[in-house]
Design a protein that fits this description.
Helices cover 25% and strands 33% of the residues. By secondary structure, it is α+β, with helices and mostly antiparallel strands. It has a 4-stranded antiparallel β-sheet. It is globular.
Length: 102
């Protein structure tokens, strides 16, 4: 299994708009992909000094992730709806060693 963590820094005045996009568009899109075992969105805690959001996904294998994200799955992508909302982005991948996820 592959754990994929996407982090996005959002313009402070557009954080609420991005949260709506995350809940209504991005998470359902990922959740519906074949091979996506789980997906969770993270929003900044109240009072946080940052407007960084995250999405934590668990994928069955590299083939499933590649089918979703393409051959350049190691690179962060944003949907057209996110243009102007995302200021920074980072993407990290990990191989799962937790047998609980199996």
């Amino acid at each position: 299994m592959i754990i994929r963590i996407f982090r996005a820094g959002i313009a402070p005045d557009r954080a609420a708009e991005f949260e709506t996009f995350l809940r209504e568009t991005a998470l359902p899109l990922v959740r519906d992909q074949d091979g996506c075992l789980s997906v969770h969105g993270g929003v900044p805690l109240e009072g946080a000094e940052t407007t960084e959001f995250c999405v934590v996904m668990v994928w069955r294998d590299e083939d499933a992730l590649r089918a979703f994200a393409g051959d350049d799955w190691h690179q962060p992508h944003i949907l057209p709806e996110e243009e102007g909302l995302v200021l920074t982005r980072a993407l990290h991948h990990y191989r799962s060693t937790d047998s609980v996820l199996l």
